[in-house]
């Protein structure tokens, strides 16, 4: 494939910290590349260098001539006073230049200018730009084109910026966190669009499903170096582990050799007289190579939950609306101990309002929330931290507590606690307004967990956390001995944590789905398939109904699978007990084993009856 971009020996530093050095790589037509690194390692900086917004310290970036490049910033800058339609035309691109030139030519009446402008409109496919823009914005659920940009939500602004960069039809598209602030339907639309598109793509995202399904290459920035992997995210995870293992083995070999060479170097100078100079040079080279630090510095989430009683909360006849918009309509629910709930739905449907009402931050119109006395909320809000921006990190945390008590009596100083969230003593002296998005997210998380909660409410926690930290947070939440409610557009994150979903469908309707997000999508596809079956002739349809037994529902299929697995386990236990009783061995707890044997037999009988009942409907 033809090369569209060549990067040669690119190096970039911020202050005295090197982000990446001597990066050399080529990007080829049709590549769909995911860029991965921990927060603060230079992902956005590299994208901005490639987009021509920042300059590198050294090295070259060579594009193919006349290559059309599109760039979506992590936080798009849009003029709040413009209308949606004006903002869509307010950026410089081949299409908008062609439209502007054509309008000027029409005003001037110059025939030569008009002919040239029409040719440019043809070349840029600009004649139907506005129609295509309206169609795409409608797909992204932005329909009021006269609305001021300043009145749009963060998600709507991201979708507007995304729409205009897509419609420019670049040959090389650079996307910085394109899934942030998008709801799941928009993410899945974008995923499908990019997957079938022929454009070359370089993107940064923490959405692992998105990386897995869209990208065919992964580039990783690790310890200022860049590594390439030919494959999707799943392939990268395996190969990265192999690379780290190989580097660890090489480091051990280097250190072993260095010890031997150190003995030789430590001898009296006359003992080395006449020795080859290259051996001395090799020693210093080994010494440099042995200084590589392969330890992974990750967030340490070791905070357990405080005790939580059996009563969590009961929602009784809760209703809420804003004008004509219904958020909840006579909602009733009893939340169970250790329950882990995911909340999904379109942007603006009321997900955040729901969790704010639960905590008493937003009043309901009617109904009551009965919250248990032992419940201690920990709230990670979508809006981020509300600290005084002029304060230092350590001062902001110390204002909350000068002594942090967690895990049933463990005491720790704020400085030590912050180090678990990767804030070094130097980082703790930073002013909050200078923190990056990832640092703010970690500080926000630290401020939530330092209060020792037993009921975590997380509203879009994945937006500014890197993939490694997300994995650590997932492991922590899956083992968390408390309650969890998560609002997230990250499908992998939801699949890893929750045991059921609230699907906000609008107009106060909430569907409680018993399963993960992936299982919910499978169920939706199943429903659509059933609805798509063409209607049969009345007489024939009635005859088939009479002959065909009812099929299992989605819930019954899940039940059937669970029963099958449980029966296998119980039969194995029964066989083991049979063998034990027939062995002739002297058993100390024979009564307990006999009681267990009867209980296993009875459960097998009950489950087999249900299994037979369901199997007839398979």
Task: Give a structural overview.
This protein is α/β, with parallel strands linked by helices and 618 residues long. The protein contains 20 helices and 20 strands. Helix content is 44%, strand content 20%. The two termini are 50 Å apart. Helix 5 (129-139) packs antiparallel against helix 6, helix 9 crosses helix 10 and helix 19 (554-582) runs antiparallel to helix 20. A 6-stranded mixed beta sheet has the order 5-6-7-3-8-9, with helices on both faces. A 6-stranded mixed beta sheet has the order 14-17-18-12-19-20, with helices on both faces.
**What is the level-2 CATH architecture name of the largest domain?**
3-Layer(aba) Sandwich
Beta-strand percent range? 15-25%
Averaged pLDDT, please? 82
Largest sheet: 6 strands, mixed
Counting structural domains, the number is: 5
Number of strands: 20
Distance between the termini: 50 Å
Q: Provide the low-confidence segments as ranges.
A: 540-549
Strand order of the largest sheet: 5-6-7-3-8-9
The helical percent reads 40-55%
* CATH fold description of the largest domain: Rossmann fold
CATH class of the largest domain: Alpha Beta
* CATH fourth-tier homologous superfamily of the largest domain: P-loop containing nucleotide triphosphate hydrolases
| SS summary, helix count | 20
Please compute the radius of gyration using only Cα atoms: 30 Å
Derived structural class = alpha/beta
Shape: globular
